[in-house]
Design goal:
By secondary structure, the protein is α/β, with parallel strands linked by helices. It is about 25% helix and about 25% strand. Keywords: Signal.
Length: about 325
């Protein structure tokens, strides 16, 4: 695969790689301490106000990016970060960050979080629309997992037709950007975790259209309403508005980069422990967004070892009903 990327100066790249080698070999507790100082232009974007990125999130995202650059895995001049402790409100400036240090550009956009699930009478690990309380890496949990990811291949699939301008039916093709992880995020591919536009075709009926390249054997195609849910939740994937998704995916097509999602399980456990002791995250020297902390009171991480057996048993005890046929359009 031929990689396309914007050139960096030789001096800058050597400096970046040499520091990244140090970081990659440093003990975890020292990794962020040995990073070079955040560039002056970027410090103006560091903080907890709307449109800013919290320092621990940026430090870890930079550390991951530099490590992957030093390994030769990444040559993209930009990297991504997400702060899943912030409110999911497109009006507050967003929580998904695009950082391009070579061109000194910083952008923040909205992004959804995993909805989780409520297994009635067994386990409730569901999340509200605004703030995420539950995180985890179990299969079929619909939960966000914090940690390190790499962007990988893309796949575009037909999701159905919707009524466009002048009542003309438009095919909706959605591109999915696969993520690969490491450590607790290592099962990202198995879980089909990635990024895509927060849009779907809902309220579907089947319309006769044998000339369509997407028609089934009987000559029918799905037709519904295009619904965008940029301010909503996902099945654990990272979802963006359609315009943001197009930009982000085009940036990494055939040119992978890193994505760091905060918080990891260690952060969740530390914040939960502090909350149990009656201390705020800041009082304990930790980070969590204040608005969401007040709403959720304490976060929880559900490991796959703990949760997957519960989900498997629940499926056995509550088999899905037979699929209903999709109605024919009137």
């Amino acid at each position: 695969m031929r990689l396309k990327y914007a050139p960096l100066s030789i001096v800058r790249m050597l400096s970046l790689c040499s520091v990244a080698i140090i970081v990659a070999n440093a003990p975890p507790a020292l990794a962020t301490e040995q990073l070079p100082d955040i560039p002056t232009w970027l410090t103006t974007h560091v903080g907890q106000a709307d449109g800013q990125i919290a320092r621990p999130v940026l430090q870890r995202a930079r550390s991951l990016y530099m490590r992957k650059v030093s390994e030769g895995t990444v040559r993209n001049p930009c990297y991504f970060a997400m702060d899943a402790t912030r409110p999911n409100d497109p009006a507050d400036g967003g929580r998904f960050y695009i950082v391009c240090e070579a061109t000194q550009t910083f952008r923040v956009v909205s992004s959804g979080h995993g909805s989780g699930r409520d297994l009635k009478g067994v386990a409730d690990f569901g999340n509200g629309r605004m703030c995420a309380k539950n995180f985890g890496n179990a299969m079929d949990s619909n939960l966000t997992t914090g940690g390190s990811y790499l962007t990988e291949e893309t796949k575009t699939t037909f999701k159905g037709y919707y009524r466009g301008s002048q009542t003309k039916d438009t095919a909706y093709l959605r591109t999915f950007l696969q993520f690969d992880g490491e450590g607790e995020t290592a099962n990202a591919r198995q879980r089909a975790i990635g990024g895509h536009a927060a849009a779907k075709v809902a309220g579907v009926c089947m319309k006769k259209d044998p000339q369509s390249p997407y028609a089934n054997r009987e000559g029918y195609v799905p037709l519904g309403k295009l619904v965008e849910y940029a301010g909503g939740r996902s099945d654990g994937c990272t979802s963006w508005s359609a315009s943001d998704a197009n930009q982000i995916i085009s940036m990494v097509k055939d040119n992978p980069t890193t994505l760091y999602i905060y918080p990891e399980s260690k952060d969740i456990s530390a914040v939960a422990k502090a909350a149990a002791a009656g201390r705020s995250p800041s009082q304990a020297g930790l980070y969590w967004n204040d608005t969401c902390m007040k709403q959720i009171r304490a976060p929880k991480f559900w490991s796959k070892e703990t949760l997957e057996p519960v989900i498997v048993q629940y499926k056995k005890d509550h088999p899905a009903p037979p699929a209903r046929p999709i109605p024919i359009c009137e």
